[in-house]
Design brief:
The protein is mainly α. It is built from nine helices and no strands. One of its GO terms (molecular function) is transcription cis-regulatory region binding.
């Protein structure tokens, strides 16, 4: 079997597992259901993912690819620090409105990580990249005067990630509430009102 064919099949299985986690939760994930959704038998699935842990790791990698693609569509080099902050807000709104499955799967993996260290190891690179990118543009904004001079970029990144994450979970059907929270985040960083509208 070619490397490309193997990669495609693994991608299909990871996507099927991703979709099932979004539908039934990670505790309800069954490898037989994943195999059936892709149209293969369980033995073939185990050829690609010998254990359920390996399959969940594949889901974590897929989640990382989704976030990477989301950010790749908005090249950071062409955006100011304030524009990048507002892009985080737009991404949060898009995930709530268009890709709620992304946040559901992320929540499921984080909850599982509280009981399984290996899941922590899978998620750490993804979350570190997210926080690191935010800390980078916050630091840039502090240097150029966009953000408060006393803003701690690392703490600000943790604050932004945890607040957007929590808001997306608590207000998954209320985008207006999330917009208000985003407005408060921007005010806390800059003192400038964040325009709450569909054009932001």
């Amino acid at each position: 079997m070619s490397t490309e064919s193997t990669s495609n099949r693994k991608d299909q299985l990871a996507r099927a597992a991703f979709d099932l986690i979004a539908e039934v939760g990670i505790e309800g994930l069954r490898t037989r259901d994943v195999a059936a959704r892709v149209g293969i038998n369980i033995s073939t699935l185990h050829y690609y993912f010998p254990t359920k842990r390996d399959l969940i790791e594949g889901v974590a990698h897929l989640l990382g690819d989704i976030f990477y693609q989301q950010h790749a569509e908005q090249p950071a080099e062409s955006m100011s620090s304030l524009e990048r902050l507002r892009q985080e807000f737009r991404d949060a709104r898009a995930n709530i409105e268009q890709r709620p499955d992304v946040m559901i799967v992320l929540y499921e993996l984080v909850l599982l990580s509280r009981r399984h260290d290996v899941i922590v190891q899978m998620l750490e690179p993804l979350l570190a990249a997210w926080r690191g990118g935010i800390a980078e543009f916050l630091a840039e904004g502090v240097r150029d005067g966009t953000f408060r001079s006393d803003l701690d970029p690392d703490a600000g990144a943790d604050f932004l990630v945890s607040t957007i994450w929590g808001a997306s979970a608590l207000f998954s059907t209320d985008v207006t509430a999330v917009e208000r929270i985003c407005a408060e985040i921007e005010r806390s960083f800059t003192g400038i009102d964040y325009p709450v509208s569909d054009d932001t």
